[in-house]
């Protein structure tokens, strides 16, 4: 069985659907599965954590608890640590500290990985990460409010947060079927983390075949798909038809990424009712939530699925963070969005679309969703999730989806 640990909730859905696409029967849980949970037949379990921007010690402790649970429940063959395709982290972590702890626990001599996800415009070449046609450090991620990425060379980024050395498996090694040989060379050189170049999906498939026996692998969802394809090898269990959601919908957006800001604008320009949460005007999460729900209650039934958002363009966001502090402003808005999500469900909303990893984590936690079945994809890597009870959830990473995703998913 493959066991996966994701550092945020949207990343967990992304990796779960990557496994499912390849015929790997996959279960997704938000946090550790509850005691007494019944497990359908499966080939992989993904545990979604909210550790990307948590305190380092807490992120490591929660990741190790997830690892112990996975190993106790059958994930003895391979563990996958899922991080963002833009390598979201600060100079302190948490990718490096969590990887160090997992690698030590699994006694993994060398850990292959790549954030490459060509379908989402993320590629790695000579150890450098590209977002579309530009280097990571020159992309919109340079201005990310929580994890600004100003460097593009992955080994340097990871070594700043890790106790171990990093190296590169170059594209000629991948396309020359020499991944395993290069990993052995790096291991002899005392390198523990090996970033695998990949420009196309086929590069990830090649790497997946070479890494099928590695005890610990890490990266974005693309490499997980390569591992799943190698495991299935044409003999995996065919995925059952994906269920589709229905009923009243609402959109909750908290991400300040360029793509989410574009998606918010598309909804507003289409005439959807929209309400912005303003933490500068009101620092009380309960008050923000009450106002938003009162606004929702006053809407006409035929106005279309509404948007409640806190997303801001970089300049306005900086002003909020300077006035309130990064942690406090985020805590106020996440608490408010969690309360709003509960209120919307109480009012009959059966489809909730969320934009942003932290926003999605707040919603899932507020609703007490333990996990669910992966359904149809509204966009590549963005599936509907059906919990045992409660609304269907679409948890969208801030950078994912076409400009009209929020609009179309909430029709």
TrEMBL record:
Keywords carried by this UniProt record: ATP-binding, Carbohydrate metabolism, Kinase, Nucleotide-binding, Transferase
Organism superkingdom: Bacteria
Residue ranges of domain Four-carbon acid sugar kinase nucleotide binding in the record: 250-406
Record domain Four-carbon acid sugar kinase N-terminal: where: 2-226
EC number(s) given by UniProt: 2.7.1.217
Catalytic activity: 3-dehydro-D-erythronate + ATP = 3-dehydro-4-O-phospho-D-erythronate + ADP + H(+); 3-dehydro-L-erythronate + ATP = 3-dehydro-4-O-phospho-L-erythronate + ADP + H(+)
Keyword Nucleotide-binding set for record: yes
Keyword Iron-sulfur attached: no
Top-level enzyme category: transferase
InterPro entries recorded: 4-carb_acid_sugar_kinase_N, 4-carb_acid_sugar_kinase_N_sf, NBD_C, NBD_C_sf, OtnK
Coiled-coil stretches noted in the UniProt entry, renumbered to this chain: none
GO molecular function: kinase activity
Family: Belongs to the four-carbon acid sugar kinase family.
UniProt function note: Catalyzes the ATP-dependent phosphorylation of 3-oxo-tetronate to 3-oxo-tetronate 4-phosphate.
NCBIfam families reported in the protein's UniProt record: OxoTetrKin
Stated name of the protein: 3-oxo-tetronate kinase
Organism: Nonomuraea monospora
């Amino acid at each position: 069985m493959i066991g996966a640990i994701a550092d945020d909730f949207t990343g967990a859905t992304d990796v779960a659907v990557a496994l499912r696409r390849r015929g790997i029967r996959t279960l997704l849980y938000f946090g550790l599965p509850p005691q007494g949970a019944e497990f359908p037949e499966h080939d992989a379990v993904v545990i979604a954590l909210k550790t990307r921007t948590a305190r380092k010690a807490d992120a490591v402790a929660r990741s190790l608890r997830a690892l112990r649970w996975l190993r106790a429940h059958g994930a003895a063959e391979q563990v996958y640590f899922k991080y963002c395709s833009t390598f979201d982290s600060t100079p302190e972590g948490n990718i490096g500290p969590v990887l160090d702890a997992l690698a030590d626990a699994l006694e993994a001599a060398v850990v292959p990985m790549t954030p490459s996800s060509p379908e989402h415009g993320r590629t790695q070449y000579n150890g450098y990460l590209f977002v579309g046609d530009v280097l990571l450090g020159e992309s919109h991620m340079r201005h990310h409010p929580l994890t600004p990425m100003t460097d593009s060379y992955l080994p340097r980024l990871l070594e700043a947060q890790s106790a171990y050395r990093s190296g590169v498996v170059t594209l000629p090694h991948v396309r020359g079927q020499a991944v395993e040989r290069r990993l052995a060379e790096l291991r002899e050189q005392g390198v523990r983390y090996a970033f695998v170049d990949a420009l196309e999906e086929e590069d990830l498939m090649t790497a997946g075949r070479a890494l099928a026996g590695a005890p610990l692998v890490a990266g974005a969802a693309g490499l997980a798909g390569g591992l799943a394809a190698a495991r299935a090898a044409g003999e995996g269990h065919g995925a059952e038809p994906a269920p589709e959601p229905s009923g009243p919908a609402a959109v909750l957006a908290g991400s300040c990424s360029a793509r989410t800001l574009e998606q918010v604008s598309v909804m507003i320009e289409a005439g959807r009712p929209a309400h912005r949460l303003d933490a500068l005007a009101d620092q009380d999460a309960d008050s923000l939530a009450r106002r938003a729900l009162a606004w929702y209650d006053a809407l006409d039934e035929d106005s279309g699925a509404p948007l409640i958002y806190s997303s801001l363009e970089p300049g306005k966001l900086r002003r909020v963070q300077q006035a309130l502090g990064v942690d406090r402003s985020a805590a106020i808005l996440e608490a408010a969005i969690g309360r709003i999500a509960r209120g919307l469900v109480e009012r009959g909303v059966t489809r909730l679309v969320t934009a942003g990893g932290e926003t999605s984590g707040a919603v899932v936690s507020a609703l007490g969703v333990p996990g669910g079945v992966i359904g149809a994809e509204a966009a590549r890597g963005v599936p509907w999730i059906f919990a045992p009870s409660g609304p269907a959830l679409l948890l969208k990473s801030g950078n994912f989806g076409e400009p009209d995703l929020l609009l179309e998913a909430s029709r």
